[in-house]
Amino acid sequence: MISQTRHCTPRVSACALRIRTTLSAAKPAAALLALYGAVCADAFAQSQLATDIKASEIQAVVDAPNLGTDRQIKVVDVGTHNVAVGVLRRGKTTPGAPVPAINHTEVTEVYYVVSGSGTLLTGGTVENSKAAPADSEIVKVAVGPSNTAIFKEPAQKRKLDAGDMVIVPAGVYHGFTDVADHIEYVSVRSDPKRVLPAGYVSPPLQGKGANK
Questions:
Q1: Is the pLDDT of residue 43 over 60?
Q2: CB neighbours of 124 closer than 8 A, spacing ≥ 6?
């Protein structure tokens, strides 16, 4: 009987469970152990890899035409969950205009402001909430299942400038106002339920031998 699953990630343990239940009970224990060990060894090898995202790659995604405001750069399977990195650039907002809000039900984001400034609203109450289309790029590639709305009364307001960081937990509505010219920021995304497409690389970077 094979019971040593504690040394593997949950994903590998689940895979090993499928192996154990589909192979014939008549298989020798040694063969099962060898197969299970090979799966674990492969997983350990994968978990030792690091992924680069060069400044030049970020800029290439920023400069690419027709990719929208939220531009996913890469999505990486790190063993226990996915981690993604995107870059966003928002233009000038209109003073006094309603502030759009969005939340992501499964993905937590960490923002690092590269340039520009603005006021980030988070939490509180919103109105006219509706689910983002399941087949949209924002859901399929960028941030997973999401809802859009209009802020009624945010719980927090903070000015963000170049060099600032903020963590936006999954499910928290957020949106920008008071953007005088622009705000550009990198978003690191934690995806514990793997709703984002692991292995994704932004089209401008595909076929350019990006390091992994």
A1: no
A2: 151, 152, 153, 154, 155, 156, 173
The pTM for the full model equals 0.77
Instruction: State how far the Cα of 34 lies from the Cα of 12, in Å rounded to an integer.
Output: 15
Q: Where are the domains of the chain?
A: 10-47, 55-205
What's the longest Cα–Cα distance across the chain? 73
The CATH label, of 2.60.120.10, 3.30.450.40, 3.30.70.3280, 2.60.40.770, for the domain at 55-205 is 2.60.120.10
Segment (H or E) for 16 = helix 10-22
Give the tens place of pLDDT for each residue, 133-158. Answer: 999 999 999 999 999 999 999 999 99
